[in-house]
Every structure is written in structure tokens, then in C-alpha cells.
Design goal:
2 domains, 9 strands, 322 residues, nine-stranded mixed β-sheet, Spore Coat Polysaccharide Biosynthesis Protein SpsA, Chain A
Length: 322
């Protein structure tokens, strides 16, 4: 009999009655058997809580927590990570479907890496395939669809700027759990925060295989179905990249809170100068490109955006001077 370590699966729910059963079933059917599922419901007003209680009555490895008032999914995940003690933690949304061997493959990678890297924060994540509300396949690779590319080595530029690590694929060890808590008060997306801190202080294992069927529908807290309509893609991302989601405040806080290398700090400072700039964006482009903040085939699109933004500012300045 295998003596596998226990993995705590942490799920947050809110009005998820339509898909939560399929998500829970995919967790209970994992080939990795040493799992305990803890679900924190964020004051659902539909039938979600009744569904959860029905599962809890049937399975001894399910625990249900309830919030008396809504706190949002970021605070809900933070609350779970604070509350549950253990060695390994996998995060789960309420509306996806996990491959049966998801945790097994991730734990194999985790344990193998820990043997040669003891006492190190480690995060394992994977690609996802995309499905619609009825489970119909939309795309075989979310990473390819979004043009996410992760280096096998440290990749500060990608994790600081684009991000791309999806929380519903994250498996972390306890060293990382302790390191990310408490979340910075400015965090908008928990997976961006966890992946960022891990990239600066720990080791990342990026599995290219899709191990989650990521459901895209109108009730998603992020990535709603219309954002994945390729016909609209040219119309939905015209603003300067990354200048939202409180990243300036988050990155300033990271520099103050954690002891990081001079090289990592230098890269973050270059990015912060861009985020802080109120004009002259075009002059930031060469450094941003050199540092890898704009990579792959999209870099020319960013150049166009920078140029247009600079032209707009100069135009308005001239008009104001008249």
C-alpha cells in the first residue's frame, strides 16, 4: 500500500449550483487517493450550499465552511489557506473538470523536485483545455490560445507582467503557503500573487499538459465567454498593457516585504517606472522589450499601442496649449 502524503484541495464557491457537482466528482475520482476537500461557500443564495451538505454527509473527506457575508473569492482563498494546516495544497474553482490523474501527475513532479530541493517553496501548475457551459471543447490549450510561454528557468518578466498561471491548476507546498500569507491588500487575482511570490522566492514547475477542463461561461468571475471570441480579440485589448489590477501597488509592496535579488529588483523597478509614467510611454518600450515584458509574436502590437498612446498625449497637449 502506498504511503502518499495528504493533499488538501481548497475550493471556493458562490452560486455555483450549475456545475459544482461535476467539479466535486472529478476531485473525488482522482487516481491520487490521499485527498481532503475543504470547500468555503461565500454566502451563496442558490442551491449550492444544499448540494455541498449532501456531499459532506456522504463523504468523510469533505469539510464545508460557510461565510455569513460575502468576502469575494480572493479573500475566500486566503481564508482557506490560513485555516487549513498541512503539507500540500491544490486550489480548485467551482465549475471546472479535473483530469483523473491531475493530482497524481502534479504530486509526482512536486515530490521528485523536493528530493533535491528540500525546504524550498514550490509551485506546480499546468495548461488547461477550454470547454463551454455544456462541456463542449473550445480549445485544446489555454496557454497557446492566450500566447502564454513560461521559461523552464526563472521568468520574472512574464510573471510580473502577463502572469498566466491559472489558480485552478496550482499545487503548492507548505513552504509557499506560509510565504504568500497574508495576501497583499491590493491583490485582485490570487493566482497572480501566488505565482509572483513563488517566482521571486521559490521554484516553479510548469507542466505543458492540459490537466483541467476550464469551463468558460457567462458567470465566470474572470474570462467570460465573449472574451474568447477570436473575432472580437482585436477590439478588446486596445489599452496599454498591464496598467490595471493594482500592479503598481502590489509590486511596490513586494519589494518592501521580501528580500529579493538585485537582478529581480532591477527588473521590477523598470516595470514600475512604466506603470507610473503618465506620458512618454514610447520611450519605455525598448527597455520593456529587452527585459522580456513583451515577448513572442505580440511585441509589435504593443509597439503600436505605445505609439498611439504617445500620439494621443502629444495631441491633447497641443490642443490644451491653444
Amino acid at each position: 500500500m502506498r504511503n502518499d502524503p495528504l493533499v488538501h484541495v481548497l475550493m471556493t464557491t458562490y452560486n455555483g449550483q450549475d456545475y459544482v457537482e461535476e467539479q466535486i466528482d472529478s476531485i473525488l475520482n482522482q487516481t491520487y487517493r490521499q485527498l481532503h476537500l475543504t470547500i468555503s461557500d461565500d454566502s451563496s443564495s442558490d442551491n449550492t450550499l444544499n448540494i455541498l451538505k449532501r456531499y459532506q454527509a456522504k463523504f468523510t473527506n469533505i469539510t464545508i465552511m460557510t461565510n455569513q457575508k460575502r468576502i469575494g473569492y480572493v479573500k475566500n482563498f486566503e481564508q482557506l489557506l490560513n485555516h487549513i494546516q498541512g503539507e500540500y495544497f491544490a486550489l480548485s474553482d467551482q465549475d471546472d473538470i479535473w483530469d483523473r490523474d491531475k493530482i497524481e501527475k502534479m504530486m509526482n513532479s512536486m515530490v521528485a523536485h523536493e528530493k533535491s530541493n528540500p525546504n524550498v517553496p514550490i509551485m506546480v501548475h499546468s495548461d488547461l483545455r477550454m470547454i463551454d457551459k455544456d462541456g463542449k471543447e473550445l480549445n485544446l490549450s489555454y496557454s497557446k490560445f492566450r500566447n502564454y510561454h513560461f521559461k523552464s528557468s526563472k521568468d520574472i518578466a512574464t510573471l510580473v507582467s502577463r502572469g498566466g498561471v491559472m489558480g485552478n491548476t496550482i499545487l503548492m507546498n507548505n513552504f509557499l503557503r506560509k510565504l504568500v500569507l497574508p495576501f497583499d491588500k491590493n491583490v485582485v487575482h490570487h493566482d497572480y500573487w501566488i505565482a509572483l511570490v513563488n517566482e521571486l522566492k521559490g521554484h516553479r514547475i510548469s507542466l505543458k499538459e492540459a490537466l483541467v477542463s476550464y469551463r468558460i461561461h457567462d458567470k465566470n468571475t474572470s474570462n467570460k465567454i465573449d472574451l474568447f471570441n477570436k473575432k472580437r480579440s482585436k477590439q478588446t485589448h486596445q489599452a496599454l498593457p498591464y496598467r490595471d489590477n493594482n500592479r503598481y501597488e502590489i509590486l511596490k509592496g513586494v519589494i518592501k516585504r521580501y528580500a529579493i535579488s538585485n537582478e529581480d529588483k532591477r527588473s521590477i523597478v523598470i516595470f514600475l517606472r512604466y506603470l507610473r509614467a503618465q506620458n512618454g510611454w514610447l520611450q519605455h518600450y525598448p527597455k520593456m522589450l529587452k527585459e522580456g515584458f513583451f515577448s513572442g509574436s505580440n511585441h509589435y502590437k504593443y509597439l503600436v499601442r505605445f505609439a498611439k498612446a504617445s500620439i494621443r498625449v502629444n495631441y491633447h497637449r497641443k490642443m490644451d496649449a491653444l
